[in-house]
TrEMBL record:
Keyword entries, A-Z: Coiled coil, Mitochondrion, Transit peptide
Compartments, record wording: Mitochondrion
Species for this entry: Magallana gigas
Annotated GO CC locations: mitochondrion
Domain of life: Eukaryota
Name of the protein in its database record: Uncharacterized protein
PANTHER family: ATP SYNTHASE F1 SUBUNIT EPSILON (PTHR48417:SF1)
Biased composition annotated in UniProt, kind: Basic and acidic residues: 51-61
GO MF: ATPase inhibitor activity
Renumbered residue ranges of the record's region Disordered: 42-61
Pfam family, one: IATP
InterPro entries attached to this UniProt entry: ATPase_inhibitor_mt
């Protein structure tokens, strides 16, 4: 009985560690993708500004 209880406790702890590691990894992935999204949004804004500048020059020509 004691050995079975120890084994169950070991499995519970291992499972908890694995779940924590998975959560930490997924949190890092989310942070990474949010950073990439912000970079892409900034690039979109730069490109839209450039398009507006080009269209403005074309209108006056």
């Amino acid at each position: 009985k004691i050995e079975a209880a120890r084994e169950e406790e070991f499995i519970r702890r291992l499972n908890a560690q694995q779940l924590k590691a998975l959560k930490d990894h997924l949190d890092q992935e989310v942070d990474h993708h949010e950073k990439i999204i912000k970079e892409h949004q900034a690039a979109i804004q730069r490109h839209k500004k450039k398009i507006s500048e080009i269209e403005g020059k074309t209108d006056t020509d």
